[in-house]
């Protein structure tokens, strides 16, 4: 029994991964369609310092969002911020240079025409079929005037564009959070709220996978605590700000990065009552199922309270990241061998999350499980409403929170005009 309990989750997880890899081999990765610019919007991406999270941060910042990388590795987080800022500055310089280059080429041509027009004194006055020097001079002068006006217009448009978009140093930031620590999550939320920023997108992305059996300082299993419970607490504490920032025509969005691993989870494991037959594979799968159950329940709560906030889950596929660092050595070698061929790159895998965060097609739409840019079915178990409610209640009681999300008497379209009671920090 104990051997079966250990082996079964491993087999189920690897079979699921093979199925996904087979799909990835046969299908092109989803490419994000052109999305509207997101200037003035604020996003938090947990675990945004590397892997999939980093790719999501880059793409959201590219759309003009102010993105906060919430991570527990300060060095890595600051390096990520630096690299994205440098990239943005380079992009601005390249664009400006491109505009100036095309202007100066035209200007140079006009100068040549003018130089030709001020011809040497022995230039014959009248030549068959050629414009007179006077005409050339007038023409080139006119061209220079037009080009100067165009340059002024281009400069105006560029400076207007820069003034409308946030300066590069504002677009990405780092804030420390250890999702495996409930007090760290609380402190993160306090620091964020002290900044007085709105919040339009929350991406619950950070995770650990296949870590050895262990407990957090708060006494929770590591996968469950980091991948699920920390995000549950973070979301509940940030809900107030998300609600205030959402509008009917532009809902705030909560996106939880789940995994196809959730299909392999069963409900017996869910509450980690027994650690007798600990399986790291099982623990990861269950934390990912918990995220989906939470997402559906949260969406239901948000919908019934009339908030302009939606919640969805995203499955990024199998991605070449550091998530696999805890694989056994043979499995890690095999993973390295096939990764280039079959795994999605973080940038490719980020597409669905970015689409979920910014697509107008998903405006006001929540409760989805998105894979490769499409809504697909999650596991049958994830739709079990009783299980969703059970997990919700259990999580609240573990965290010492009230069951009810909050009492929100919003006037639809108010975007914060309602009176409500929220959780205290
Ligand atoms: N890679 C895949 O094939 C795959 C497949 C399906 C789903 N996913 C999901 O995609 C998401 C991103 O994973 P990834 O592949 O990008 O893995 P990754 O490269 O390992 O990134 C995970 C991020 O989470 C951070 N993190 C871990 N523990 C944390 C904690 N206690 N507090 C704050 N941050 C913490 C990590 O920081 P450190 O590196 O400093 O620990 C890292 O930045 C995860 O939710 C994962 O389950 C990935």
Automatic annotation (TrEMBL):
Annotated Gene3D superfamilies = NAD(P)-binding Rossmann-like Domain (3.40.50.720)
Q: Which InterPro entries match?
A: NAD(P)-bd_dom_sf, SDR_fam
Give an example GO molecular function: oxidoreductase activity
What are the entry keywords? Oxidoreductase
Q: Which domain of life is it from?
A: Eukaryota
Which segments does the entry list as coiled coil?
none
Say which family it is in. Belongs to the short-chain dehydrogenases/reductases (SDR) family.
The protein, known as: Dehydrogenase/reductase (SDR family) X-linked
């Amino acid at each position: 029994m104990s051997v079966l309990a250990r082996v079964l989750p491993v087999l189920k997880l690897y079979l699921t991964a093979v199925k996904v890899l087979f799909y990835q081999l046969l299908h092109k990765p989803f490419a994000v369609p052109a999305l509207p610019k997101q200037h003035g919007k604020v996003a938090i991406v947990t675990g945004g310092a590397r892997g999939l999270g980093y790719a999501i941060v880059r793409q959201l910042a590219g759309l003009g969002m102010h993105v906060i990388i919430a991570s527990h590795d300060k060095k890595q987080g600051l390096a990520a911020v630096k690299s994205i800022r440098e990239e943005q500055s380079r992009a601005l310089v390249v664009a400006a240079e491109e505009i100036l280059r095309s202007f100066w080429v035209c200007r140079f041509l006009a100068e040549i025409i003018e130089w030709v027009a001020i011809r040497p004194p022995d230039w014959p006055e009248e030549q068959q079929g050629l414009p007179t020097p006077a005409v050339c001079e007038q023409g080139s002068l006119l061209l220079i005037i037009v080009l100067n006006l165009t340059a002024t217009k281009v400069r105006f448009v560029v400076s207007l564009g820069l003034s409308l978009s946030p300066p590069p140093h504002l677009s990405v930031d780092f804030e420390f959070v250890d999702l495996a620590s409930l007090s760290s999550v609380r402190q993160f939320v306090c620091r964020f709220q002290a900044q007085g920023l709105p919040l339009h997108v929350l991406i619950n992305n950070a995770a650990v996978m296949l870590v050895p059996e262990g407990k957090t300082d708060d006494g929770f299993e590591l996968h469950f605590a980091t991948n699920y419970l920390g995000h549950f607490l973070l979301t509940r504490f940030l809900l107030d700000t998300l609600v205030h920032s959402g509008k009917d025509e532009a809902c705030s969005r909560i996106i939880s990065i789940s995994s196809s691993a959730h299909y392999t989870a069963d409900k017996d494991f869910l509450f980690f009552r027994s650690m007798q037959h600990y399986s790291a594979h099982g623990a990861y799968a269950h934390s990912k199922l918990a995220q989906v159950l939470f997402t559906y329940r949260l969406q239901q709560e948000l919908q019934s309270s009339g908030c302009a906030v939606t919640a969805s889950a995203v499955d990024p596929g199998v991605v070449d990241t550091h998530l696999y660092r805890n694989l056994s050595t043979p499995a890690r070698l095999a993973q390295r061998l096939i990764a280039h061929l079959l795994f999605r790159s973080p940038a490719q895998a980020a597409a669905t999350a970015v689409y979920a965060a910014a697509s107008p097609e998903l405006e006001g739409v929540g409760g989805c499980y998105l894979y490769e840019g499409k809504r697909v079915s999650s596991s049958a178990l994830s739709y079990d409403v009783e299980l969703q409610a059970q997990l919700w209640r259990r999580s609240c009681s573990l965290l010492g929170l009230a069951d009810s999300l909050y009492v929100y008497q919003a006037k639809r379209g108010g975007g914060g005009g309602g009176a409500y009671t929220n959780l205290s920090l």
